[in-house]
Structure formats: C-alpha cells, structure tokens
Amino acid sequence: MRDERVAEPDREPESQTEPESQTGPESQAGAESQAGAESQAGPEVIRASSPGPTPDTHRDPARSATRSATPTTTRTSQRASDVAGVVSRCLAGLVDAVVVACIGLGAQLAFGGLRLLVTGPPFRMPELSAWLTGAVGWALAVLYLSVSWASTGGTVGDWLLGLRVTARAGRLLGVPRALLRAVLCLAFPLGLCWIPFSRRHASVQDVVVASAVRYHRF
Asked: pTM surpassing 0.70?
C-alpha cells in the first residue's frame, strides 16, 4: 500500500505536462502565421515608406530658352553660310558671258551657212551695226539667263561654280521673276556690290525679286 501511494504522486507531473505539450504546436503555428503576415506586409510597408521620384519643379528658364533658341540659331547660321559670295558669282558671270558670246557666234555662223546655201559662195558673216549687235546680244543673254534659272535654277557658270538661283524658300523662280532678275543683272551689274553689306549676302537683284544664290551640287 505504501508503494502504491508513493507511486501515485509520480503520475501527476506527467498529467500536468501533457497540456503544455499539447499547447506547444499551437503556439508555434500562431507564431509562424504572425511571421508570415509580417513578411507579406513588409514589402508594402517598404513601398509606402520609400519616397518616390520628386518632380523637377526647379527649372532654369534661361536654360530652357537657350535650348529652344539653339536650333533656330543653328539653322539661320547654316543658311547664311550656304549663300554664295561675290567672287563665286563674278566667276559664274564671266563663264556665262563666254557662253553667251559663243552662242552669238554660233548664231552668226548658222546664218552665214544658211545664206551660203541660198545665194551660193562666197561664205560671208552677217554684217550688223554696233547697236543692233548689242541689242541682239543683250536679248540673247536675257533669254539664256531667264530660261536657265526658271528651268533648272542654274546657268552653265552656276553649274561649274556649284551655285543655284532659287527663291528664298528654296523653290525655283517662275518665268516672270527669272526674267526680271536677268534684266536687272544685265542692266545693273553693280548690284553685286551690296552683297558684303547684306546679312543674307543678297545682291540688289536678290532683294528686288526675293531670290537667293546658294551653293548646290547638281
């Protein structure tokens, strides 16, 4: 009996420890669920707490104005640099004068050959007075220049010097404007002297008919 009574108290601690062993997994599960919730909410908290990109509200108006004005200034300088000067235009004019003289000589030879076929030998060149020769040559030069500028934008001299006569916008001159420019170039060749004083390197003829002479590759 004494042995049994002594053995009974030994069983009571086991019964008291059983609830603790039963509550252990539940506490572990609760801790794991709480840790999982914290891990899921962690990125959201980090995202909310991280500052976003701040807009650039402090802009320099002078810098923005300089950036907007730079392309316009570049285009204007490029256009001014493309305009032909006095020397190249004078050289093109000399070449055109030679071309017009050759055309006039060819016309006289053709007339003399036609008269040879009609009247017979000897072959003779047409004899014209000085004023008539000048008038015919002047009309031939006007026709040569106006047709060349209205059709292709350049004469033979312009082609050799790499020049092109167009309107300010870059289009070809019409027949009336090309004809007027040709008359002004022959009647007042000193209009080229205005080129060094013009910001657009324009002659008097260019100012009157709103034309421009630029370097161009045909």
From this structure: no
